[in-house]
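FYI - complex with S-adenosylmethionine, inputs then prediction.
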Amino acid sequence: MNHEEYKIISQYVFDVCGIVLGEDKQYLIEQRLSPILGELGCNTFEDLANKLGSGNSNFFIREKMLNAMTTNETSFFRDEHPYVAFKEKIMPDILDRIRERKERSWQRRGSKVSMWSVAASSGQEPYSMAMIIADVISGKSPDVVSLEDFGILGTDISSKVLSKAMEGRYGALEVARGLTTEMRNKYFLLDGDSYIVDEKLRGIVNFKTFNIQESFLQIGSFDVIFCRNILIYFTDDAKRKILSQLWHVLAPKGYLLLGAAENMYNLNSDFETERYGATTIYRKPS
Ligand SMILES: C[S@@+](CC[C@H](N)C(=O)[O-])C[C@H]1O[C@@H](n2cnc3c(N)ncnc32)[C@H](O)[C@@H]1O
């Protein structure tokens, strides 16, 4: 691939999903797109650059390229610390909130707590959240709190990873990454040589494709948002826009968690910060 072709292809990736591919990422495009060049109707990168450069792309090409170019690395309870903060710091407050909402009985219908896994990839993040919720509420009377009081939305730009997330089926290596045997036995069903997430947990997690470069107006409002290991791929301008939109969809006193290598320095000063162990928790004041 020559420099001109690289510029056209990396610009296309930037335009469709905001991922910045610097000058040194030519190998990444070659590695990820070479195997699907034929499916894109091209023999060479020159063909692909010509197609994209002349505006001759279509939905199929866009989907194929997105699925190939996004980095979907994830695991259950990734980095551990944010999940400790979620369990020990955030969940007790959420339970109080549920109790308060239920006490105001005229608001009962709207009493669900909504959570959002912004870049859900193949589902390990939202299902980890669901496992913690199930653990925290176990043993409590269903009149006080039950799984039905929670709704988790998992979104991602890649339809390929989301279809795996929806299936909730994982191989032995995937469950070995981050899950204790106890959690696996409690929340997964062995089916052949793969593990399926418990039906009750799947019942509170919904998935849909969503590009976080777009408007958040239709996405809803959330008490807890996990937006982890995605901002790193964007420009500072894009990060500012995303953080500002997250602010607007976060409920008053809501919680936002970012990835271990992400922070809001120089990007947004509206959120309050709180440390819990090794985790920074971002909050929207009431
Ligand atoms: C590295 S994974 C992070 C998964 C999970 N949050 C975690 O921390 O384990 C990043 C995900 O962001 C998704 N992504 C990239 N650009 C996106 C965009 N513009 N809108 C929504 N999702 C995007 C990718 O498809 C990928 O699945």
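Residues 17-19, 70-74, 78, 119, 121, 125, 156-158, 161, 211-213, 228-230, 233, 259 surround S-adenosylmethionine (CB under 6 Å). The chain has two domains: 3-69, 81-283.
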